[in-house]
Every structure is written in structure tokens, then in C-alpha cells.
Amino acid sequence: MAEPTAQDQTPEPEPRPRFPRLLALMGLLLLGSIAGVAWLFGYWEPRLLPVRIIEVEGEVHHHSSELLRQKIGERLSGGLLTADLLELKEAAEELPWVGTASLRRVWPDRLRVRVQEHRPIARWNADGLVTAEGVVFHPTTGTVPAGLPLLEGEDKRAPAVVQRYQQWRDELMLVGHLILSLSVDARGAWRLELVSGTRLELGTGTIDQRLARFIGSATQLDAAGQAEVVDLRYSNGFVVKWVRSADAQARADTDRDPRSGKRG
Fold first, then answer.
1. E strand or H helix at 32
2. pTM for this prediction
3. Can you tell me whether residue 211 is helix, strand or coil?
4. Cβ proximity of 48 and 79 under 8 Å
5. I want to staple 210 with a disulfide (CB 3.0 to 4.6 A). Which of 186, 187, 194, 232 is the partner?
């Protein structure tokens, strides 16, 4: 009887190693343990390390410290270690008067909030305020500071309007005038109203040179009388409309009254 050749012999299958299955099982157990620890930490951390105190630092004039604490407390979740400081920062900066806010943890049970408020230099349009940097904001609560001038224009023009206001304010003060309001319309035409009651029409052209023309003549104009409107929208000069005196106004009214018996 012939012996089987090498081709006729079928090799027996080798036993599969059990290590990959064991490693996979250990991995699942590890993940389950991590998830369990995370859940336990999330459950117990706010209870063991709660935030009991919210401190407010910085000058808070228009929003009380209590209002800030309330706003942050509404958004606070977790304990001292798990509180989301970025979310709480955003919550504080949602208050209209708050410019910037920063938070840090203070062991063992408090959050410290440092606030820097917007500092308005003027009113903006009907219901806004604007800072020296041209930041427009709209307070919903608090008291608007008294005595602020009025600036008007599109919000996108705010930085340019503020820059002009600050420059012209200083220049006009040198000749004894204060700005009551400054506006620029959609066409880019500028207008100034002074506390003295004079309105300056600057137009859309070389407005700095036009204002300089008024400043150079302000002393003579003030000596001549009360200017109601100074129209500077001319290349080489300006036109003045004067405020009539009480006597002149009365005579003008009489001349226009047909019952006076006088001809106009």
C-alpha cells in the first residue's frame, strides 16, 4: 500500500490566539470604568465643591453687583472645577453696559468676576450710547448720564463720527464754543449744533477746512451778534443768518400784520 504524498496530506488548522479577544474585553471594561468615573465625578463634584460665592470686582456703576451675580448664576452649571468660565464670561458681557468680563476660580467655593464697563462719551441717535472707541450700545436699564452731547449717523459710521467729535470739540473749545450735537446723514453731509444756538452747515466736501474757516472768524462773529446758521458750504467763504433781536422781530411781525395799517 502506497504511503500518502505531501500533496495528499491536509494540514490541521492552528488554534487561534485568544489575546485579541481578551484585549478587546479589557478595553471595554476600561471604557466602562472611565464612563462610570466621569458620571460619578459629574454627579458628586457640584455637591462636594459647589460655587457658593460670586465676587464682582471693578467699577460697576449701571449694573449692580447683584444683577451680575444673578446673570452668572442663571448660566452656572457644575461646581467649582467644572463651571464653564467661557460661557459665564459671555453671560456677563450680554449685559449692555459691560464691555469686557473675566472670571477665575478661587478655592474652595467662589468665582471671581472682573468687569470693565463701557464708558460713553455721547448719546447715539435716539436710544443709544457710544464710547470713545466708537462702540455703540443700547442700555435697557440704568440711568443715562446727563449732559452728554448727541451724535447721529449710521452705526457703521460711529468710529468716524466719534473721531470727528473729539477733534472738533477740542478745537471749538479754544474759541469758547461747545458742541451740542453732531450729525452726518446718509449722503455724508455733516452738521454741527453748538450750545450757543448756532448751527454750522459743513456739507460733504473739505469739512475740516470749512470748520477751520469758522473757527478763524468765530471771535468776529460773536462780536457782531448771535448767528443762527453759518453755512460753510462755499469754496471761499460762508453765509451767516443772524438771530433777530426782540425789537427787530416785533417790527417785522408788525410789518407783516395787515391790521397794523402799515405797508410792508
1. helix 19-48
2. 0.70
3. helix
4. yes
5. 232
